[in-house]
Amino acid sequence: MPPQDLFAGASAPFGAGAAPAADPPSPLLQHLNPEQLAAVTLPAGHALILAGAGSGKTRVLTTRIAWLLQTGQASPGGILAVTFTNKAAKEMVARLSAMLPINVRGMWIGTFHGLCNRLLRAHHKLVGLPSTFQILDTQDQLSAVKRLCKQHGVDEERFPPKQLTWFIAGCKEEGMRPQDVPVRDPETQKKVEVYQLYEQQCQREGVVDFAELMLRSYELLRDNDAVRAHYQRRFSHILVDEFQDTNRLQYAWLKQLAGDVEEGGRLAPRGSVIAVGDDDQSIYAFRGARVGNMQDFMREFGVQRTIKLEENYRSFSNILDCANALISHNQGRLGKNLRTQQGPGEPVRVQESPTDLAEAQWMVEEIKHLVREDVPRREIAVLYRSNAQSRVIESQLFNAGVPYRVYGGLRFFERAEIKHALAYLRLLENPHDDTSFLRVVNFPPRGIGARTLEQLQDAARGAGCSLHDAVSTMTGRAGANLSAFVALIDVLREGTQGQNLRGIIGQMLQASGLVEHYRNDKEGADRLENLDELVNAAESFVTQEGFGRDAVALPLDEQGAPLTQSPASQGLDPNLPLAAPGEMIDQDTGETLSPLAAFLTHAALEAGDNQAQAGQDAVQLMTVHASKGLEFDCVFIGGLEEGLFPHENAMSDAAGLEEERRLMYVAITRARKRLYISHSQTRLLHGQTRYNVRSRFFDELPEEALKWLTPRNAGFGLFAPDPIAAHRGNARAGRGFDMKSASFANPPVPPRKAAPGHGLRVGLTVFHTKFGEGKVLAIEGAGDDARAQIHFPRHGTKWLALGVAKLTVVE
């Protein structure tokens, strides 16, 4: 029997058993809309509440608990409420305390891990744990695995400890002990052996990790009938928040608590399990979240009541119309449509820029205008799909003197992988930089331990020299490892002489082992993107300083001419030295700087300046993932391009693309009053200019809700002369054009033969080292400006600059 939709819209009738909307029986129920009232006053039984973004979900949850307590349907000890964050649990407890004159501190309200910890403390003997068992955090767990590997001679090159911890956690989240793991090859066999040894070590020491809290609690309920029956009777009402984010083990744990109870010799169904969530906001598949749990819950629990909270109290309808239209393209949704009574509000502004730098400059200009209109900076958020995108935005905010804060992460030049890379670069410029030496001498790991470094530092102090120079005094294996590191730096320094900045950084990233290290890291994809972005930062630096991207930089005078004549003849301080080829002159100090030294100075300034102090009003920068649960008056979503958003890693299968669409849905629904979305025709990636196809998501937005700040039918490189002015007064929105047929970023190019020398023509099959084989669709331009439109089956259609892209014709 299909579940009954108790309240799908404002005019829909209540389902059987729902409380009437008129004459609310309690002050608790005042100020609830009809949908919220239906959810709060549901009769006992299993139900699903589909809570749309900004629909008052937390209010419904806490009011439901308060109503159950006030009406005597449940005691404080008979309610179990599960949330995903400690912050949400504390907020729920605080709201309940304000609603009711009772002590709610002892109630079972908390996160999955927090409640499992409480369960295991109460039954520690049954699960074989000491009453004082300790919990290992992520770093503690990694240290424990490293210690175990050393004791048992595990080859850490073949089996890095961090990967072993991920393997163990993954097995536990699937409910598998070592004996349950299917072994298909010797490598898996070794990992299972380490898993077994790790379990024995943890048991011996009386410690558990986070995944163990969940798994051992599940096993306690599964294997002990008396304990399971006790908690099933005790918790007559179970409420689960953010149900779309549950993984397999968490759902299995809930089923143990909510199973049927034996009463009088027969099985009686549980009283009430209410799952609250939004399948349209399930964006954590990479963490193991399983959106299918919502469908399984409805089927396995025989859910008869579904309530949709669709009235949004956050955003204007133009923003919600975009969110609704976009998400409607996903298949298999449980289905809901956000609405508001606040009116249409301002249209969603769409900006097309020629480059990612121009996109960032436009954002900053618009942000400055918003601030002049008295919008607090903390109410302005810039969202991006990839962490690496923040670099160019940070750079423009820095140049404009606009305070900003990276929410849930680090500013670009503060990220560990960037600091590692900069430390290597500093050693190329100055081998006596002890701080940089200590940072990377054993990163990536090369067998140089803390004791060795202590001895090296003692030797350097004794000789009054740098750590680099003291290496020659070290003997034995430690001395050999240190000497190998110094030789690596020296060879790298010699090998990069005369190279441009991009070449120096690229060679360093490979030779240092940083790229290989992060490539083998399960969570290294973002870090690799950031290292690629460091190359882009260098490229932008030399370009903005007025140098050609492939030139070994020469200094410029105030008029932009190379400073190769005498300083006095240029109207500068006559004491300034003449710049040699490949050097720059600091106009403040007269110091002669290499391009590398100048870039390192620039990076240090960006890292150390413009820091938003605690409590200071600052623009918020964050990934879309980090933005979930937050809201802002004004939101910018940048980089809406195929391969970036949706991300190329998710475009090869339907499930991945649907998760990307849910991610865009989350981004859109963060905005209260004003939303901007943008893309650029070209973007600097991996030190190369890429020609982009605008995101398919533009085609899924309603035309009537949009305002185009740049004409959609503009040719490549043709833009409104002043996009900001166009936004403020000139409504050149391009309305009347058919979005499905009009071109946004890349107009159709008539097929024609390539310029001589390229060897390409329309219809040829070519091979690209990253994108694989593709077919040439169109070619335009000549010489260094030539570009080709190529369709790659696995990566979609892309415009590539022929002077940069390494293409091979496939015979």
UniProtKB/TrEMBL annotation:
EC number assigned by the record: 5.6.2.4
Gene Ontology biological process terms, A to Z: recombinational repair
Family matches, as InterPro entries: DExx_box_DNA_helicase_dom_sf, DNA_helicase_UvrD-like_C, DNA_helicase_UvrD/REP, P-loop_NTPase, UvrD-like_ATP-bd
Ranges of residues in domain UvrD-like helicase ATP-binding: 30-316
Presence of keyword Chaperone: no
Catalysed reactions, as listed in the record: ATP + H2O = ADP + phosphate + H(+); Couples ATP hydrolysis with the unwinding of duplex DNA by translocating in the 3'-5' direction
Gene Ontology terms: cellular component: cytosol; DNA helicase complex
Record carries keyword ATP-binding: yes
Residue ranges occupied by any UvrD-like helicase C-terminal domain in the UniProt entry: 317-629
GO molecular function terms noted in the UniProt entry: 3'-5' DNA helicase activity; ATP binding; ATP hydrolysis activity; DNA binding
Binding site for ATP: 51-58
EC top class, as a word: isomerase
Keywords carried by this UniProt record: ATP-binding, DNA-binding, Helicase, Hydrolase, Isomerase, Nucleotide-binding
Signal peptide segment: none
Pfam (any one): PcrA_UvrD_tudor
PANTHER family on file: ATP-DEPENDENT DNA HELICASE SRS2, UVRD / RECB / PCRA DNA HELICASE FAMILY MEMBER
Sequence similarity: Belongs to the helicase family. UvrD subfamily.
Name of the protein in question: DNA 3'-5' helicase
